[in-house]
Amino acid sequence: MNDFSAQLATELQPASGTGPDWLNALRQAAAEQFRSHGLPTRKDEAWKYTGLGVLTQNEIRLSVPADTIIAPAASPAVARPVVAVEQQVTLLNGRILNRSENLPSGVALLALDEALDTEVDGLQALLESLPSAKKKTLSSTGFSALNTATLENGVVIRVASGVDGGRVLLSWSTSVEKAACLFNSRVCLILEPGAKLELLEQFETPRDNKNTSNIVVQAALGEGAALRHVRLQQESETTGLITRTEVSQQAGSDYRYYGFDFGGGLVRHDLHCMLLGSAAKASLNGAYLLDGNRHVDNHARVDHMAPDGFSEQYFRGVAGGSGKAVFNTAVYVHPGADGTEAKQSNANILLSKRAEIDTKPELEIYADEVVASHGATVGQLDEQAVFYLRSRGLNQEQARQILTTAFCRSVSDRLADPQLAEAISERMMDVMPQLD
Amino acid sequence: MLKITNLHANVAGKEILKGLNLEMQGGEIHAIMGPNGAGKSTLGNVLAGREGYEVTQGEVIFNGKNLLELEPEERACEGVFLAFQYPVEIPGVNNTYFLRAALNAQRKYRGEEELDSVGFLRLVREKLKVLHIGDELLHRAVNEGFSGGEKKRNEIFQMAVLEPMLAILDETDSGLDIDALKTVAEGVNRLRSPDRAMIVITHYQRLLDFIVPDKVHVLADGRLVATGGAELALKLEEQGYAWLEDGGIGTLDETGATQAGTP
Question: Could you say which architecture CATH assigns to the domain B2-88+165-259?
Fold first, then answer.
């Protein structure tokens, strides 16, 4: 373990004392795990292209409860929602700052501690299900162990069977304190059979923010449940954001992810779907646009455990300036998951010589009658297309803008929600890197 | 309107155009014919300003301006339009959006007011009517998944909207069946105007059955080696290009044709 991890390990005090015994046992076990493994390093295959320099440079400290109590008046301006929403939860430093009350019946939205007090059905099983470092293939386990060891803040949303929970926005930000802090938070989504929900997450931090957020989202989709998960992320070049999304899917459930990453100092997202029941669907879509010194690392993985599942991964990336993107997409079709269809597509455009994109698709199949395709490309703007546009009177800069916007719009258009797609497309145009 | 003098151009270090001369007035249609590899498409690309086509000698004066000094988009804004032999597919860019952006870029360059979407749509409808084509091309991404005929029709449609002063049609007939060819040719004929010159580059004579040119030039080995009236094209169809190697235009049984360079 390196010095940085060792220092965090000494600071680490499991959030004991609150909550039921099983939770304390979980926290203790995670703390032990963190003390023995620490945070990942570049020696870990899954972190080969992403170092933790931003965290060490910022001399990140683990937040202690006293740090996280912020008077609402002192809180920074909260990011404007990308679209109008009826249900919004604002989180500051991983804690709920405020939330809307007008929930549809059949939807429970609680702070994690409230949910633990009221013993929300399925919550214990969900929290205990977060895979641990014992499974070597999982990559963010050091951060997850830290997250579990300090588990006390977060949001729990439960949607009753057959209910459409509508759209809920989680707006995340952190406040600038004396020391740069690492804030942990957990989101638990429980969708009963046939339930529906759209979760919108927005992450935005102002300049000079040196904090890091470490957020784990766990979603359990019952039979035939449908979750749409839309993320829009724009951190400053000094901010860290480590997120992990774990989705477990029962038969016929449908998970759709649409991620729009504009990067930050260190931005990492591990997105993992377990298709446990037959004919489950996972559609993972994303665009990442990086300029300046921004970084983003997406690791997406789908495990097909049951027959007749469908998964697709559609990611598009544009990097300019000294931007750096890492993209890893993996599909594992396990024995018995016959009749699986899996598609992976990743294309990238580099607009600058200093920019870097590392992409790696992985596909392993141990079942029969599987249809799978994958492809990953990194290239420059299509010169033919640029000339075509210029020959009609558009200058080089306009041509670049039209082509890169179209490239990324192919992701937002997949939202099949014109209003949201348009709003996100506008944000993408605001941050679109320039040719250089 | 257009005067090309002693134009030499290289592609990938190889000289393709070797001293080409051409003069055109507004309203004229000139056909440029010639065997494969003669430099026909190079001429179109040089005039449009494509990268990789290096002019080593000569000049091109277009409406008093030195065309070769201008960027491709400036040439377009000055009124040069190249209808591509292979129109480029641009997924995700709506045809209407693209064309409006292009037209407005040109209008802005010329100090004219930009068109809003209502004004643009009105113009587009008018042009579609003139060309007798439906509006299905409008809603699709630029050339994406278009058939060969649709791609060429889209080029002509763009030309109708952008109203260039000099249009260069680079093998617009290639890959088209006779019906598609007729449709495209009709479109071109409707866009004939006293202020618009057109260069029709083609390998085959059949396009010239439908677009009757004022002059026909034969381009061979980087130079215009013969010039004649529309009937020259028919002769070429009949006799092919073998005479080029057999001793020049004199061997061609064609009274209307003259050796290039002689009046």
Answer: 3-Layer(aba) Sandwich (3.40)
